[in-house]
Amino acid sequence: MVSAQFSVSGKITTPTGEALPGATISLTSSKNAVTDANGNYQLIGVAAGNYTLQASYIGYRTQTVPVAVDGNKTVNITLAVANFTTEEVVVTATRAGNNSPIAFTNLSKKDIEKNNFGQDLPYLLNQTPSVVVTSDAGTGIGYTGIRIRGSDPTRINVTINGIPYNDSESQGSFFVDIPDIASSVNNIQVQRGVGTSTNGAGAFGGSINISTATRRDTAYADLNNSFGSFNTVKNTVSAGTGLLGNHFSFDARLSRIHSDGYIDNAFSNLKSYFLSGAYYGKNTTIRANVFTGFERTYQAWNGVPDYEILNNRRYNEYTYKNQVDNYTQNHYQLLLDQRISNKLSFSGALHYTKGSGYYEEYKDQDPIADYGLTPVSPGVDTANIVRRRWLDNDFYGVTYALKYVPTSKATLTVGGAYNKYDGAHFGQIIFSDENIGIGPEHEYYRDNANKNDFNIFARADVNIGDFLLYGDIQYRHIYYSFFGLDRNLNNAQQNATLNFFNPKAGITYKINERNNVYASFAVGSREPNRDDYTDSQPQNRPKAEKLYDFEAGYRTIGEAFSGGINGFYMLYKNQLILTGALNDVGSPIRRNVDDSYRAGVEIDGRLKITDVLSWTATASISANKIKNYDQFFYNYDDDSLVELRLDKTTIALSPSFIGSSTISYVPFKGGEIAFLSKYVSSQYLDNTMTTNPAGFPTDPTVAGNPYAFNRRIDGFFVNDLRLRYNFSIKAIKNIGLGLQVSNLFNEKYEASGATYPSLAGGNMYNYNYFFVQATRSVLGSVSLNF
C-alpha cells in the first residue's frame, strides 16, 4: 500500500517583496525544485514526517527552516541579501531550465555517486534516454565512446563549467584524458538535439554540460576505493576546508585507476588530480580550478576482427609491449560570478588547456620511402620500425554571459566566447632494425595547425500568462589553418573561414503546476573536422553541415509518477558520411550527402510504486535515414571503384530502439538494491544495410562465421545489479559499501564496430571489426566520509 503523500509549496522573495525566479529549493536533500518566473515552487510526493527545507539564491543568504509534514504545506521564505554571494560557477546561460522547450536530463551529484565505481563518465550516463556507450577495452575503463540519438562523440558538445572540452580539430571528447572526473562533478545536464546556445563545436546530436564541485561549508575528508574483475583498482582521496573566515574554501582530489581490461593486453593506467580554491564576497564569487589527467593505455581501438571473434573474443591484434597511447592533459580555469544589481549578474571564465603525448606503434617491414628516406644499404627497402606520433597542443580563451532579469516574467542573457587552439602534430622514428641513416628520435613529419573560434549569442525567456516564449540566436565565426593536400597531392598550408548563424525558438504552455507541453525549432551548423580537410584538395573541400531540429513534448511531475514524452525530427543538409572511397594513404574519405534525417520518439519516467520501491525507465524509437545514397567498394581486380546506389538507407551505428530500466528497492534505511537493464537493437556498421552490389557474392570461404557475412551488430540486452549500504559511526560521518555486478547474465555482445568491405576475385569480402564488451564482472567499493 502506498503511504499518504503530500506537497510542500510556497514562494521565495527578497526583503522588498520581489519574487526570486530560479532560486533552488531542497527538502532534506531528498527532493529539489527551482522556483518559476513568479518565485513559486512545489515539492510533491512528500511522505509525512519532519524535514528541513533549504532555499538558496546567488547573492542571498541560504535559509533553512524546519517543516513538519502532516498534510499539504505552504512555506514562504524571504531571503536576506548575503554578506557574500552563493555560487553559480557554471555558465548557466548554456543550460536548459525546467520549463525550457528542450529535451534534457539532469543528473545530481547523488545520481552520479551511486554508479561511480571507476568507469569512465559515459558509463554513468548509460541510463539516460537515447544513449549507447562502448568501451575499447570492454570494461568501461580506458577509451570509451558515447552516442546520443546515434550521433558519435564528434557531434556531441561537451562543456566543463561552460568551457569547451571537445578537441578543436578532431571534434571528439576523450574522457580518458581526465580520469575520475566524476568524483569532482556536482551535476550534469544532458541535452538532446541542438539544445541551447553553447560554447565550442555545435551540437549535432546532443550536449553534455558538466558542472564541477561547488562550495561545501564544513571541512571534510573522503576516501573511496573500488576493486574487482580484471585486476581493476580505483583509489580516490578528497578533502576540503569548508568555508574559512566566511570568505574562502579549498578542495582537493587525488585519484588513480588501473585495469587489465577484458580485451587481451588492453590495460589502463590512469592518474588525475583536481584542485579548487574559491573566494566569496558580498557580490562576487571567484573560483580557480586546476585539474590534470594522465593516461597510459594499451591500444585496442581497432576492435576484434571477425575471423577471430568466434575463437577468442578477447583477441587483440597488437602484441608489441609498448603499443600504447600516452597522454597528459592539464586544465586551468578561473571562474567569476558577479552580482551587479538585483536584476543584473555576470558570469565569466578564463581557461587554458595544455595537452601533450603520443601513441607508439610497431610497424613490421615498413617501406623506408614512406618516411622520406633513401635506403642506405643496397636492397634494403623495408625495416621493422617503432614510431611515435605526437600531439602537442594549447587551447585557451574566455567565455562570458550577462544575465538581466528586468521583471519576474522575463530573462535576457547575452553571452559568448573566444577560443584559440594551437596544435603541433609530428612523428618520430625511435627504433629501426636496419641502418636507415637517421639519428635518435628522428622527426619524419611535422604539421602545425591553429584554429580561432568566436561566438556570441542572445537568449530571451518571456512569460505571458501560462506561456513561456523562448528565443535564442547565435553567430559563430571560425578560422582554421592547417596542412592539407593541394592540387598536386602535396602537403601544403591551407586555411578555411566559416560563418554560422544559428537561430532557435520555442514555446512552452503550462497546463498547471505539474504539467506542460512544449515545441521548439533550432538550427545547428558544424564545420568539417581535420581529416575532412587534410584528405581533400581545395577544389573538392567538403561543405559545412547544417541541422534543422524540430522538437515537441509533454512533461508531468506527479506524486507517484514523473516523466515525459518527446518527439524529434532532425533534418540534415550536407551531412558528412563515409563513402568507402580511399585517399592516397588508404584512409576512408567522408563526403557530404544532400539529404538525411533522424526522426523518433523518446519516453522517460519514474514511478514510485511504494515508499521503498521505484521504477525508472526510458525508451527511444527512431528512424535514421539517408536519401539517395552512393556507396563505393574498392575492386582489387582492376583498381576501380564499384558504385552501389540506394534510394534510402539506414545511417550506420544508429539503432532503431534503445531502452533502459532501473528498479530500485530500499529494504531499510541506508540500503539499496537496484536492478539495471539496457536494450539496444541491431545496428549496421556502414550505410548499406548489409547490401552487396549485384553480381558479387559474399566470399564462400567464410562459411560458418556469421560475423564475416553481415556488416551488422546484433541487438543486445544487458543487466546489471547494484547494491549500496550507507551507515555511520561516531568517528565517521558515513561508511558506504557498494557492489556492482555488470552483465549479470553473462551476455556475449558487441556495442560498436567498423567494416572495410572490398571486392576481389568476383567476391565481396567483409572485413569486419567489433568492439567486444566484457562478460560478467564485479566491482566492489568502500567509502569513508569524515
- Biggest beta sheet attributes: 22 strands, antiparallel, barrel
Q: Which overall shape is indicated by the principal axes computed on the Cα atoms? A: globular
Q: Which architecture of the largest domain would the CATH scheme give at its second level?
A: Beta Barrel
Give the averaged pLDDT, no decimals: 91
The third-level CATH topology of the largest domain is: Maltoporin, Chain A
Question: How do the strands and helices of this protein lay out in sequence?
Answer:
Layout: E1 5-13, E2 24-27, E3 31-34, E4 40-47, E5 49-56, E6 63-69, E7 73-74, E8 77-78, E9 103-108, H1 109-115, H2 121-124, E10 131-135, E11 144-148, E12 156-160, E13 163-164, E14 185-192, E15 206-212, E16 220-228, E17 232-240, E18 248-259, E19 268-280, E20 284-298, E21 304-305, H3 306-309, E22 324-339, E23 344-367, E24 382-407, E25 410-432, E26 442-464, E27 467-485, E28 491-512, E29 515-526, H4 530-534, E30 545-557, E31 561-582, E32 588-608, E33 613-635, E34 640-650, E35 657-665, E36 671-680, E37 683-684, H5 706-709, E38 712-713, E39 716-729, E40 732-742, E41 750-755, E42 758-760, E43 763-765, E44 768-772, E45 777-785
